[in-house]
Description:
The protein is an alpha+beta fold. The chain is 24% helix and 30% strand.
Amino acid sequence: MFRFTDLLRRRRAPVPGPVGTRLGTDDGFRAVVDARASIHPSGTSHRVEWWIGGEDRWYAPAVEAAVRQDRPGPAPVLVTRMRVAGGDVVATTWATLASGSSGAAVVVELLNETPVPVAVAVTVQAAPGGAIRRISVDGRRLLVDGGTALVVDREPGRYAIVDAAADLWETVTGGRAVIAAPEPVRCRIGAAAGALVVPLPHRSALRFAVPAGDLVDNPSAVFPSAERVTAGWVGHLADAATVDLPDQSLAATTHRNLVDLMLADPTPAGAVELCRWGLPRRAVECLLHSDGPPGDRLVAAAWLWMLGREPGWFTGTDGIQLEDLARSAGDAPTARWALARMSDLFAALGDARAAVDAGRLVEVGGPPELVATDPAATSLGHLADRLARTSVDGLDLLVDVPDSWLGGGIELHGLATPHGRLGFAIRWHGERPALLWELERHDDGPVVLRVPGLDTAFSTVEATGEVLLAAPAGRVPPPRPSSGPVPGSPPGASSGPPIAPPPEGGSFS
């Protein structure tokens, strides 16, 4: 007999993934925390939330209006504040690796800033499109379908597990949670849910973990603090390019986007942006783990070579395997472009025949476009192109300068380009911008630098220098306090007393 339920099951549309901030660790563990502080571990069918029992009633971030979430810096560490009677309960959320062999987890530290005790219910429910068929309690742990879904740092005061998720709220808030650990609950349709209820005194904190594996240790004992995790991410960004712009919000998102890109699903376009913004080893790892079309991966490999000129990235078992990529990409125009760009790489690797063959390839059109599917890669790519765009014979700096940037300091350090690592700075003298630049060229060939967004008449082939540009035609910068590097100092030098600008048409040297 034909079963319509089977047909409906086959036609069911895929459920979109959670939207929010991605957290993760170097071992590949990932989770998403949404704007309401719900935690969605990747590769699982459940989500974790926390509810607060205040003096007057129960509060849940998913439905309360007074919920504010902030990401204080580039690190993937979130601070979520929820207003309850008498003050705020603050949740700091991060992902980290435990000491020893306990593995990775999302860690949440709940701080009760109110002057009275509250109750905390940490809940596990099925994620959209997911199912929980068996849920059980094991001391401080809540187990879902045999795996550890949640661990709190102290013995719960009460427990609630149900075979219908819709009943969990009423069970917890209606006082029906039990003191003794209940028996496991099963649900054939996958709607089981549960909560561990823990008392939290005033001005004190509670920590719980959403682990990647079978965590049995106390979360307060084995996981580093949010401050240590933040310091670790700052270390990851130590070699990254930096930018300072009149649009401070845009500048502030640069390192945040780099962190998000390191945690995103690896793509060829993402690998290129990581390399361009000064994280080449991360870029190589990203490309090695990406599963995009072979042609895109070959194009990305060519970009990594042009940006970094490091043959070691393409050797050994942990390097980019060019032969495999070239064979998979075939004879498409994009593959021909990429191979032609890597002829000097083949020479550096000692493959003279491949170098000659690649050098003979006829390129059709310009560089192939790698479509970025991740918002962080898209944002980084757009900003890099605004700061330095490859031209026929060199680099065009500041191609697009909005009026809001006029009169404001601009400073860039360590951006990788096909011609070398670039740094430059802009400081204004009245209506005229002063440019300081330094290009660490890959070779001794001439590279023409232009600044079409400020002075269309200026060009130079000098690798370093400083010059007072003409005032932008028809555009007057608004009055604002002097900012940016001191003329006569390299980009990045600390500011000091202002000095007189050079004479008309002159330079700072």
